[in-house]
Amino acid sequence: MRSLKGSAVANWPQGAGFAGLAIIAMVPIARDYYPPWLFATLIQLPLYMLHQYEEWDDNRFGKFIDENIAHVQGALSKEFVFFVNVFVVWGAIIGSAFASLYFHKGFALVAGYLTLINGGLHLLGTIAMRKYNPGVITGVTLFLPLGLWAIIMHPPPGAQWFDHVFAAIVVIIGHLMIFGCLRMRLKKLRQ
Question: How far is it, in rounded angstroms, from Cα 8 to Cα 175?
Fold first, then answer.
């Protein structure tokens, strides 16, 4: 019998996909209940869940990294992928919503920049490698337009230029940390 941890690590992409669809089904209710800027922040979570299903179902993105970038098997451990996608990504989006409600509304921009920058990275990767990378379809069709929609059309009230800069920097640093962890793991695997 599989442990709860083992099941969660193995099956989270499928759970994310179904949860994303379920949350999106509630959009008509949430759209009218929350202020537009908060709705624009919260909607990034189910969008990300659908994106994660495209990326990680059957470990598609992990296999892509192994074959095209790392040239070694298991460059991204399943536990690392689970931790980053569930705790860091979902936590960043949920955390930005709570922080915007209780500390400073500008924190809401982190969610929009997270999807926008991730979608942009997928698109740039596809162009540079001239091949599909898992996540680019949702990155282009959902992340780019709806990330821009969140930060341009529905920024939080009173958001200033420095709120945008802060949010973008937080997201860029987060991505650089993930790339750094991948690089350290590759160094270890190649020894």
Answer: 23
